[in-house]
Amino acid sequence: MNKFxxxxxxxxxxxxxxxxKKNFLDVIPQGKxxxxxxxxxxxxxxxxxxxxxxxxxxxxxQVLMGDDVAAEGSRYSTAMAVSQKAFxxxxxxxxxxxxxxTMELWLGNMYTINxxxxxxxxxxxxxxxxxxxxxxxxxxxxxWLNFQFVNFYGKSYQKASAAxxxxxxxxxxxxxxxxxxxxxxxxxxxxxxEADFKNAIATLPVNSQSAIHFNRAAAKGLLAKVxxxxxxxxxxxxxxxxxxxxxxxxxxxxRLYDYNAEFASGGKFDPITTNGxxxxxxxxxxxxxxxxxxxxxxxxxxxxxxxxxDFIVLSAKAQALFDPAxxxxxxxxxxxxFSEPNPSGRLSKIGVQYSKFxxxxxxxxxxxxxxxARLNDLSGALVDLATLRNARMPASAAAVPAASxxxxxxxxxxxxxxxxREFAAExxxxxxxxxxxxxxxxxxxxxxxxxxxxxxxxxxxTLKKDRLTMRLPYNITVSNPDMPNxx
Amino acid sequence: MYKFYKDxxxxxxxxKTNTSRVSGFRFYATAALLFLALLQVSAAATAQTVTLSxxxxxxxxxxxxxRKQTGYDFLYSTAxxxxxxxxxxxxxxxxxxxxxxxxxxxxxxxxxxxxxxxVISKKAAAKITFTVLHPVIHGIIFDDHDQPLVxxxxxxxxxxxxxxxxxxxxxxxxxxPANGTLMVSYIGYQNDxxxxxxxxxxNIHLKLAxxxxxxxxxxxxxxxxxxxxxxxxxxxxxxxxxxxxxxGSTDIISRMEGLVAGMTVQPxxxxxxxxxxxxxxxxxxxxxxxxxxxxxxxxxxxxxGVQVDNLSTVNPxxxxxxxxxxxxxxxxxxxARAANGVIVISTKSGxxxxxxxxxxxxxxxxxxKPDFGYSRYMNSSQYIQAMRxxxxxxxxxxxxxxxxxxxxxxxxxxxxxxxIISAAQANSGLDSLSKIDNRQQIKDLLYRNxxxxxxxxxxxxxxxxxxxxxxxxxxxxxxxxQGAADNTYRIxxxxxxxxxxxxxxxxxxxxxxxxxxxxxxxxxxPQFLPYQLFQDAAGNNIxxxxxxxxxxxxxxxxxxxxxxxxxxxxxxxxxxxxxxSNLLTINTTGELGVKIAKGLSFSxxxxxxxxxxxxxxxxxxxLYSSRRELLxxxxxxxxxxxxxxxxxxxxxxxxxxxxxxxxxxxxxxxAYNTLLRGDKDELNVQVGQEVQEQYNSIETTVVRGYDKxxxxxxxxxxxxxxxxVFGAIGSFRSVFNEQPYTIFYDRNRYxxxxxxxxxxxxxxxxxxxxxxxxxxxxxxxxxxxxxKPAYSIGGKWLISKENFMKELSWIDQLAxxxxxxxxxxxxxxxxxxxxxxxxxxxxxxxxxSLFVSTTKNDKLTWESTHTFNSGIDFGILANxxxxxxxxxxxxTTNLLGNIPTNPLTGSSSVFGNIGNMTNRGxxxxxxxxxxxxxxxxxxxxxxxxxxxxELVSYSATDPTQNxxxxxxxxxxxxxxxxxxxxxYRFAGLDNLGDPKIKLANGTITKEPDAASxxxxxxxxxxxxKFNGGFSNTFRYKSFSLTANxxxxxGAVMRRDVNTFYSGRASTFASSLxxxxxxxxxxxxxxxxxxxxxxxxxxxxxxGIDGSRRNTDYYTLADINxxxxxxxxxxxxxxxxxxxxxxxxxxxxxxxxxxxxxxxFMIWKANKYGIDPEYQSFSQGMRxxxxxxHPFTLGLNVTF
Lengths: 487, 1199
Description:
Chain A has about 475 residues and is an alpha+beta fold. Chain A has helices spanning about 5-20, 40-45, 60-65, 75, 80-85, 100-120, 130-155, 185-205, 215-230, 235-250, 260, 315-320, 360-375, 380-390, 395-400, 400-405, 410-425, 430-435, 475-480; strands spanning about 50-55, 70, 270-275, 275, 290-295, 295-300, 310-315, 330-335, 335, 340, 350, 355, 360, 450, 460. Chain B has a 24-stranded antiparallel sheet that branches.
């Protein structure tokens, strides 16, 4: 073999290597991508994690903490320690080995939302309107999250002390390397919520792709709720009215189910089986008929990572609030999960796996009614109440009793009771308890929980005032040793 | 194999001062004008008698025949045989020595036999007296029998003067320096030298070198083959004889256990883990301690110069040589993936000029059934007693259990408590349960006797231009699982072509086909309810429907409405489904060597591996799990309704998986070799480029209602099913999320540049270095972090070649070496990114979506390991004792791992560079020939490794790391070993039987969460600090006995204690568990018991158990941490080599049979009967050994 042949062979081989393209190494693993286009951000805002907490999280703990529930001993004894602690209003619900799924999931949401807020306007391929709609949705979501945080870990809003009361850190970064966070005051958080909702209202469209996304009505309705919670009733009413208008103007407006029709033969919820009404709105997170903005959490028996509500029954007080003709009672039975009869006869919620806690149209009516009542427009409040009650029970039972509609405080009490009837065992009551406790229009109350044993005895637990504000969970305190916890 | 003898040089590092071209593919040979008929010692037995019938044959041909018959090596130079006379001889079964005497009688040659070598030299002529006229130095060089040696080379050190002895064995050198050194060498003899000191006549007696002639061990880095004597790096080589006969395992890594200093094999089933590429499992090994926090710790594997994912395709019988690269100098050439070490495997090849030879090797190893006696569960009467004691109908009221599993013993207890049966009836029912023992049925019905057999038939041979090695093999892994099959068929073909003297091309091909299948066997053992039989007395399978957790009433209701039978008998399920897989692997490596010009050569390595495979899974509708699933998609409100099935109720679920992987490597390198400084020094330089790609993919298709015969299936409405079926039986809402088609793929690419340099001075001082730069797609856009090169530098001093060492004749070899370098350990693709990585998931309700799957960390860089190694190699007492001692220190910086983050950031951890770790240690390898006589020999090998591992720093200190919980499971705690084990300081039980602990400040408490990290005690490391092997081989005539011991010392583990303290034990019966640790009987039962037991009380209420106390205070306490040190006789082999006389009549060259057993515990440090090989150290759980002692019978025949 001569030299020429050898050189040719080597030449070819060397060429075969250099033939590899420069972008040889630029391959991104399958199923992984980097957000660059507006469409990527649209898909991020379509993530299920932002609108359904279908395994754990949401208000699962708040359900157990409301005074609208009591516990059935035979089930309580087998429940997880965290569930028992939430029910007994223990100081610290979470120990080192426990997961606070609620906060874990929401803080994960916060990372995504902040990323969208920071980056979406620089994304490529979308129109300015599209980007702004995403930005608005992200602002609204952040405000909604902060509203949860401030009501978990901050004291009930009181104008006088809000600037001093510690709430929760305001997180505006999406950076896991940040080490230090500081608790903001209740007032600061409310201000941040207001600012975010206002930004959202400025850019959100009237129509959203579906009810799992914020539209303008949802942002306005929720900001109004925030105003109501912080005593700014006039501004609140203005926004409530706008929210109703915007909802009506949207493509698929949220509407109330008329239980009178749905439970009638051939109605959507007919027939009532051992599992509860067929197709109740709480059967899954897909029925968004009544949602202005739909967010759902798993609110059923213990499934591994949540609290489980297996042992929960309606408290005697809550059960007494219902008129026997109230069709909402169809969602209750003396039954444990898996259609197991409860010999005690106490009622549990049935046919509901998911509870909605974004902004439901029934709540919007009740909030506006409350707002009107607080502004002394009692008749206006009654109109909103009537709209809801007429959709929930036969007209014969729907009228508000005269004793309850005559004075502002009686009507407010009635509205809070109506909230309990509409949302019993769904966590709403916890937020109302916090408001009642600091509201001079309500008589001072002692909140108790009853644990019923099979042998007829019962144990009662009383809520300490401090525990209207939750203590920061274990994993947060341990990572932030300098952060003061609530008493 | 691959043994070469001294002065046979392998490229590219030649080593002697003289060069000459030799035929064959070696570029340079330097054997001082000598061509060695270099002949391999056959691994097979050797005959010592000769049968010849020759007429006027060439002496060299006759010698070759004798070599083949006897296995002796013949050492001579081509020049020696010049002038040899033709040979005529006819002998039958005459001893070698007699034949040689006959042949050499009339030759101008003489011979001497030493050990297994025959050295041939010229006969000296009759002695002549010379008168010396000039000032010359002269003398006679004698052999060990005082015969003059002709042609011995004599020179004066440092000068060009040299000569060879004449026919009388005399030499003359003019004008010798008064104080020079005279150096004498002769092939087959030890070199000798002496100072001249004005002497005029110096006679020297040379000693035969055969005994002291050390085999030249060749180490292979995958990039180059080196004479180990000249390698500066730290290389380990297992004893291939032991390796070849370790039939107890078919796994290559397992077979190396205790044979390589510094390599720790994690033995037993707990050491079998998924490999780093996600393509199957392998036995894990760690080389020189863990040098990573979270990445793979296994070394990389190289077969025939090319990196491969796993070694399972290679037949151990085909392996010629294994080199373990331990330090940076050895492994840095593998760059960014070499920090864990490299295992380089070469398969066998043929040899030029070799007649075709066949070899059969086969064995069968029987393992029997699992060793259930090892576990510590309760027997039936203990269990029933414990269950009586813990029965609690108040905490677990009957009404609350309609959807729970009620075991037969509980049924009786509840019946009694509900007044359905009397106490007497209950007692008699429980008593009869306590007399039933299901262990025999489990052993007989659920398991079968396991065995493994491997058969290999190989052939090899070759001519000057072509040689080959080929083999066929069959491996049958008959596991103890009923209905399973696992067969592997392999073909190997290695060939080398030398078309011209300057071109060599070799092609190595391995083809492996692994075919496995299994049924739906159930696996359980003593963990199951001990009284529950599977078959009744008549041999009928028992219906165990209760195990599935439906009460009889519920079951009846469901069955009536759904019309689906809900009986369950585990034994009926075996043949109702199957999993079959078929994996073909083709691995080819081409190597091209071209000599371009003097000293300059090109070599290319081209590897391609492809593994297409399929898997099929079938689950019949008759399986209980299928029936239960169907139930969840069946709507029937009453027994009168016709049930509506939303998924098919016939056929089965069939899933077909198609996987594919390929891996290619293209490597081109140029090598330049030259002699410098008057041929005293030698320089070797290599540069090259390499490109590599790895790709894996798997596609799965699932169909429902599959008819095995018709191959038809049903069409499903996935969209509707995914929204959920409402009101189905046994389910409120059933959501069907099955994906009919999925695909996943993974692609890694690398591009690398590298260079190597060796420089040797005077054959005594060697310096080498390497550098490599790797680029990959692993970090995606952050290429700037990839610019770090891997490099090494090393030096070696061959002390025994210094003149001043000549005096110390008992030292045969002595060398010092030292190296330093940097290697890396890269993560898998997609593990870490400098930007947020989004994942996607199927969300067919509201459209496609993305979520942040990996949060960004823009400060990522390669994990790199800086290794310093220093070692000494020695051979003393005529090389009867040889060995090496190494010290190393490895600093790993920028460890990659999960940094705990502040949960307020939205993430609990992020992948980043977390800190630094050090490993330091010492290794000793010793081999000694204790007794060496023709009839009996005894040799010993001792392997010792010490490793100390410590996490030095952790860049992100997070408060969560100070929690007790974190530290109890943490592997990374600053200042401790990377496998550290912490425990609570146990302080007894209180008067409720709740465990207490002592905190660091002396407080004794039982409060849950009272402890922080500082309150725990460090118990030690879970990695053995000392490990190694101790092998002894005895040979008596044709018998040989080899005993290999392994030891692992200095680690700690948790012991298996009772963990059942609350709730209902029977809950676990649904997964064929439910039994509890026998310690439970000794628990705290009443106040006062705390004086004599440490085992906490049972508290039925889970909530109370969880809030009143923490039973981990006992289970994870210091009192339950024990030493994991042990010594085992891993295997003992008795072999017999058949006598050549018998074999010759069968035309067989050699035959050997052997029998082997193993797994004998010699010593263990714990008193609880724990075999650490079956213990999870951190969890403290026992697993059931698959066997007690395997037994092997093997046969090896060459013909």
